[in-house]
Design a protein that fits this description.
Helices cover 33% and strands 23% of the residues. By secondary structure, the protein is of the alpha/beta class. Helix 18 (501-517) links the parallel strand 20 (490-493) and strand 21. Helix 3 (61-74) runs antiparallel to helix 4 (76-87). The protein starts with a strand and ends with a strand. 46% of the residues are buried.
């Protein structure tokens, strides 16, 4: 299918062929008929993308600050890799469209295939032939509306939310500054709600009838607006001012302060510099409100991605209800979108259209619609990719290990996939992700040989693929691991292996069945989890000193993990499990590797805070007792400063001490002498673990991570949760 994307690193805009996105459980797959260009928003995104690296840094100083904090703790090389992975990313353009539902997720109940829907949302309702949109970002279209009318959904919902922020009542007077598409929709909605509208735009062409201008009064300069508003309101001023223009200056705010009444409200829907004079604010006791997109629910992953609505008695107008109201206003002819359409283009013309818009050629652009060909004949069974795939049996070499990868998030793009490209004698076969842009872009970037896919089963079930790498969200790991085992694929799954003890037992049972049915051990697939730290050169150097120890180890391991918002998916019980399950398994594995022993007892305590500013279960102390008598204390905290070192390991044994700091320096105090081992940056073992995985598959080396060790560290995380819940130590 065709989709319009911009490379955020280079700024290049490209209409490209990508796989059709997958339909997730809380989303609907929609065949677009029309999508609307939001000139203000998309122009700003495009112009930012077109800036140099230095220009982007100046525009986003907050991200630059975070980058230097990361350099302090994780080193320059790793920080640059992650930063470049963020930049070198395809960004779908567009956020407002309309089309027909072709498929629904298993948890979607209000839509069915064939329904006509308006769709909104950045990254969802994009300029693409097919889109996958969460249920809460869609609404049905009445029969009397065209797809073009409904494609105005997002911009109209933004206008509605701006009006609601002004807290208006019938008959009040409102000044609208800026008469682009957003401003004209704001004006129409205000009139539909019985308000008197005074509008201003410095471009006189936007005040004419051709642009469906409906304000009661109009002005083309700040000075005439101020003078006119004073006369129209008899010197009292407007009840509110809504700014819908895009500006880098404080002019719109200053003008708004001039025209509003005492205790009036200024709502910033567009952009402007918010640095008003204190005395001006004081004189009128004015308030400034920055409207957040289409309303409550915007960018809330629980609302948007999981489809959990806010209860109407408590939140009357969410972004979905604003969308429904906008569609209702259009259907009742209270808002006229037809006259707002200045241009229509085929999606195939998209690249030229954007160039013309950026150059302001081909007339005044207001509402610009992309039209899409009708693909009623599309076979949904083949919709996961429109690109031809090679037939099976086409490996390039019998000596090579053919690899399929599922998932390409930031961690994969910045660390694992670059490391994978350095491994010799492997054949990068297919990359599959849920979105077409991601799978297509990263498949090309990392030189996968086969066309990208959005159906992970095309990787698992492909007979030509020997090994599968699962780099997806935690909740999918167990399911994909079991499916891969049943297909007798070698598996590298990023941690954690699974998020519940029931899933762990199911994986164990699957392996037991394979082992009992296999004629030889070589017929059983290799399973490893991404416990990279044991492969770090710092750990391997340490192991040499631990081999001949006589007494048990005492280990202190402190992890300054950093704060993660409670709303982040990793905290979700069904999706991420928790940070204990998703991250502590890393450190438990490493301690088990250092002791070469099994955990036999666990005791854990967490802080008792407000669980908001400092999440209780993200700040825990864990004591582990091992079968050989060793003990380890883990301190895992999200309350520390990110500028401080992230990980510190101290080991005490036989009168000796070893100290590893952030996998950059190792100090060895052995037999009264001190030795130092340093690396240029953090050496976390990513390259080494992948090399060992593929060497073990090829039979050139034994895997340094056994399934027994994997099961032990995974089970230990569940026992930590049990200890926290019961307040007692757990014996294995």
């Amino acid at each position: 299918m065709k989709q319009l994307i911009q490379n955020y690193k280079t700024g290049k805009i490209e209409l490209t062929e990508v796989p059709v996105p997958s339909c997730t459980s809380n989303s609907v797959l929609v065949r677009n008929h029309a999508s609307l260009i939001s000139l203000g928003t998309e122009r700003s995104v495009i112009e930012l993308g077109a800036k140099s690296i230095l220009g982007k840094a100046k525009a986003r100083p907050d991200l630059v600050k975070r980058f230097f904090q990361k350099v302090q703790t994780e080193g320059l090389t790793k920080s640059i890799q992650e930063a470049m992975a963020r930049l070198d990313n395809p960004t779908p353009l567009g956020y407002s469209s309309a089309g027909t539902v072709t498929e629904t997720g298993k948890d979607v109940h209000q839509f069915s295939p064939g329904d006509r829907v308006a769709c909104i949302g950045s990254g969802y309702a994009s300029h693409s032939e097919f889109i996958s949109v969460p249920e809460n970002l869609c609404c049905k279209i009445p029969e009397n509306l065209t797809m073009e009318d409904a494609a105005f959904g997002m911009v109209g919902a933004i206008a509605l939310n701006g009006i609601r922020c002004a807290n208006l009542t019938f008959g009040e007077t409102v000044v609208v500054i800026g008469l682009g598409l957003l401003g004209q929709l704001t004006t129409q909605i205000l009139k539909a709600y019985g308000c008197k509208v005074i509008a201003m735009d410095i471009n006189p062409k936007k005040l004419g009838e051709k642009n469906n201008f409906t304000a009661d009064f109009s002005f083309d300069s700040e000075s005439t607006l101020i003078e006119g508003t004073e006369k129209i309101t008899k010197g009292y001023g407007a009840d509110a001012a809504i700014i819908t223009t895009a500006s880098n200056s404080s002019g719109p705010i200053d003008t708004s302060l001039e025209v509003i009444k005492f205790k009036g409200t200024i709502v910033l829907v567009g952009t402007a510099d918010i640095h008003p004079e204190r005395n001006d604010m004081w004189h009128k006791e004015a308030q400034i409100i920055v409207s957040k997109a289409a309303g409550p629910g915007t960018f809330d992953p629980i609302y948007e991605n999981k489809g959990i609505d806010y209860p109407l008695p408590h939140v009357r107008w969410t972004e979905n209800r604003n969308l429904e109201e906008l569609i209702h206003l259009i259907s009742k002819e209270k808002v006229n979108t037809k006259n707002l359409i200045s241009h229509k283009f085929k999606i195939e013309e998209a690249e030229d259209v954007y160039q013309n818009i950026l150059k302001d050629t081909d007339g005044v652009y207001t509402g610009v619609i992309f039209e899409y060909k009708n693909k009623d004949t599309l076979d949904q069974k083949l919709s996961y990719t429109d690109l031809p795939r090679k037939k099976t049996g086409q490996k390039t070499s019998g000596k090579e290990i053919s690899v399929g990868v599922i998932g390409s998030g930031l961690f994969a793009k910045s660390l694992l996939l670059p490391a994978l490209t350095k491994i010799k004698n492997i054949h990068l076969h297919t990359l599959a992700t849920t979105t077409g842009t991601s799978s297509h872009f990263n498949s090309k970037k990392f030189l996968f040989k086969e066309p990208a896919s959005t159906n992970y089963k095309e990787v698992i079930e492909n007979k030509d693929i020997d090994a599968v790498m699962i780099l997806t969200p935690h909740s999918t790991h167990s399911k994909m691991t079991i499916e891969s085992l049943n297909e007798k694929k070698h598996i590298y799954v990023e941690k954690p292996l699974c998020i519940s003890e029931a899933e762990l037992n199911e994986i164990k049972d699957t392996l037991i069945t394979l082992e009992s049915n296999g004629k030889t051990q070589s017929e059983v697939p290799l399973l490893v989890v991404g416990y990279n730290r044991r492969f770090s050169p710092h750990v391997q150097k340490t192991i040499n000193y631990l081999e001949n120890r006589k007494d048990p180890l005492i280990i202190n391991y402190r992890i300054n993990a950093g704060y993660v918002s409670p709303e982040h998916w990793v905290h979700d019980e069904k999706e991420g499990g928790s940070r204990i399950i998703g991250e502590l398994c890393h450190f438990i594995d490493l301690v088990g590797y250092l002791t070469s022993s099994k955990v036999c007892k666990i005791y854990a305590e967490r802080i008792s805070g407000n669980n908001k500013t400092s999440l209780n279960s993200d700040n825990i102390a864990v004591t582990l007792k091992y079968a050989d008598g060793s003990i380890a204390n883990l301190i895992y905290t999200a309350s520390g400063d990110r500028g401080f070192s992230r990980e510190r390991i101290e080991m005490f044994f036989d009168g000796n001490t070893i100290h590893i700091e952030d996998f950059k320096t190792t100090e060895i105090f052995f037999s009264g002498k001190k030795k130092n081992f340093r690396t240029s940056g953090q050496q976390m073992g990513y390259q080494e673990e992948l090399q060992n995985f593929f060497d073990a598959i090829a039979g050139n080396e034994i895997s340094k991570l056994t399934k027994e060790e994997i099961f032990m560290s995974t089970l230990a995380t569940f026992k930590i949760l049990e200890s926290l819940q019961t307040g007692s130590s757990i014996t294995f």
